[in-house]
Write a structure and sequence with these properties.
Layout: H1 2-19, E1 22-27, E2 45-50, E3 58-68, E4 73-77, E5 85-87, E6 93-96, H2 97-100, E7 106-108, H3 110-119, E8 125-135, E9 146-152, E10 160-162, E11 167-170, H4 171-176, E12 178-182, E13 194-202, H5 208-214, E14 219-224, E15 228-231, E16 243-252, E17 273-278, H6 282-285
Parallel strand pairs: 11-17
Antiparallel strand pairs: 1-2, 2-6, 3-4, 3-5, 3-8, 4-7, 8-9, 10-12, 12-15, 13-14, 13-16, 16-17
Length: 292
């Protein structure tokens, strides 16, 4: 009788082992920073599920956990709300981030949830993603477990290069063209960034930031993928009076969503520079006049 029981148990274990689904997780080691963008992309991760020799098909749920490098839990799947996934006997099924990191059914710890609410991103750093398939019928794993490491880089918004802050441009040259230059968004996204060059005139009774917040821009030009723009202003500087301007860059991704930095202002806006267009000579101004 004992031998029969042992044989039955051995056969049962054999059946479960062969019915288990084998999964392989391929994770981009440096995915895009915005977790909300993962669902629309197939270059973030791929989960390949292959049923075992004896069945291994049926309904399963994807169980995902994200942790920091030191083991703190970032998010876990709420298995009660996780959708069913059907595996077909003898057929490999491929899942992507929209299935594996389903933000609709993942529960984030409060500190990380607050960060995502404000920026759409997890803090920069190293993370682990741990994935397995669970049986939809029994509270047991239906597959092996796969663990991968990925790194999220801090996003640096453009730094304005030219005109530099407090630069004075000669009116004669500025009348023809003003060149704007800036550094790119770092790390550079796969798709071209949409930079919006914005210039506002600072009126006599305004501070530069008041002008930025209340005036209509004299220039609001989209530049795709480049970090330079030459403005040919349709303005007259012949009066002899100085004209003060403030300029900034807003950054958008290829889907026209704002790219925010690690300390976002909610507008994807770089730091600002102020420059002056003047017909005065360098001696009168007492400042160096920077050429274009």
């Amino acid at each position: 009788m004992k031998k029969i029981t042992t044989l039955i148990l051995t056969f049962f274990v054999f059946q479960i082992t062969n019915a288990q689904v084998n999964i392989n997780l391929v994770m981009n080691p440096r995915p895009v920073a915005n977790i909300s963008d993962w669902a629309a992309r197939r270059d973030v991760l791929t989960l390949i599920a292959t049923p075992g020799a004896v069945g291994g098909a049926g309904n399963v749920k994807i169980n995902t956990t994200i942790k920091t490098a030191d083991g703190a839990t970032v998010a876990t799947t709420d298995m009660l709300r996780a959708p069913l996934k059907t595996l077909v006997p003898g057929s490999t099924t491929i899942f992507y981030a929209v299935d594996v990191v389903n933000t609709q059914v993942m529960v984030f710890s409060s500190s990380f949830q607050n960060k995502i609410n404000r920026t759409g991103k997890l803090p920069a750093g190293s993370y682990q993603i741990i994935v397995r398939l669970d049986s939809a019928d029994l509270p047991i794993p239906a597959s092996n477990t796969q663990t991968r490491t990925f790194f999220l880089s801090a996003t640096q918004l453009p730094v304005l290069i030219m005109p530099a802050n407090e630069t004075v441009l000669p009116a004669a040259a500025a009348q023809t063209a003003i060149t704007f230059r800036w550094t790119p968004v770092i790390p550079r996204p796969t798709e071209a960034v949409r930079y919006h060059v914005q210039v506002f005139e600072v009126l006599a009774d305004q501070t530069p930031m008041q002008a930025l917040r209340s005036n209509q821009p004299l220039l609001d030009q989209e530049v795709v993928g480049l970090t330079q723009y030459i403005w040919r202003p349709q303005l007259s500087f012949a009066s002899g009076a100085d004209h003060k301007f403030i300029w900034t860059i807003q950054s958008f991704d290829f889907t026209n969503n704002i790219i925010t930095g690690e300390v976002p202002n909610g507008e994807g806006r770089s730091e600002v520079n102020v420059f002056t267009v003047s017909s005065a000579t360098p001696n009168r101004l007492g400042k160096r006049i920077t050429g274009l």
